[in-house]
Amino acid sequence: MRSVAFELLGPPRLTKMLYEAQVFSELVPHVAALAAADGKDLARRAGDLVARDGDLRSMVLSVGLPIIVGGDLVYRGAKVLFPPNGGDAERVVQRGWVDLRPGNCGLWIARAGRMVEQARRRGSGASGSAQDWEAIGSQDPISPARFAAWVFRYEDGGERIKR
């Protein structure tokens, strides 16, 4: 297992997304397969992976991010960056816990579906300087960094270049 994030990278949400995408990359071969996945099945398989892969689990927990899987089972290390502390636990999970429950798996499946649709719309029309060289193709393997960048760009409106 290669390291995805060996320390907290900026906001905990980035590290969370990197590790969630890493888990999915170990379960499905490419973006289109993630888009076609079933959320409950993906969550079950992700929970099984975390349960048996001590290295993966240890890497996530070592940066202070708990892992929550189906059945609301939580793995946590000695340090938790965002403990619920009696507040809105779901908001805390969204900000800085690796969430492998069916609902969040469904969110990633929907994201992958939008990536596949973008790839379909792009087709082969763009070339040269008009080509989006960072675009994600439907048959591309899941890349945690590219997935996180896609979320920041398209969901969070992080586009910085005038077009």
What would your notes on this structure say?
With 163 residues, this protein is mainly alpha-helical. The chain has one domain (12-121, 130-155). Helix content is 51%, strand content 6%. The protein has helices spanning 12-25, 31-35, 39-52, 54-62, 89-96, 102-122, 144-155, and strands spanning 67-69, 73-75, 98-100. A 3-stranded mixed beta sheet has the order 2-1-3. Helix 1 packs across helix 7.
Q: Main sheet?
A: 3 strands, mixed
**Residue-averaged pLDDT:** 87
In total, the number of strands is: 3
Q: What's the helix-strand series? A: HHHHEEHEHH
Distance from N terminus to C terminus (CA atoms, Å) equals 38 Å
**Sheet with most strands: strand arrangement:** 2-1-3
Count of helical regions: 7
Features:
163 residues, mainly alpha, single chain, three-stranded mixed beta sheet
Task: Give the helices and strands, then pairings.
Elements: H1 12-25, H2 31-35, H3 39-52, H4 54-62, E1 67-69, E2 73-75, H5 89-96, E3 98-100, H6 102-122, H7 144-155
Parallel strand pairs: 1-3
Antiparallel strand pairs: 1-2
Helix pairs in contact: 1-7, 3-6
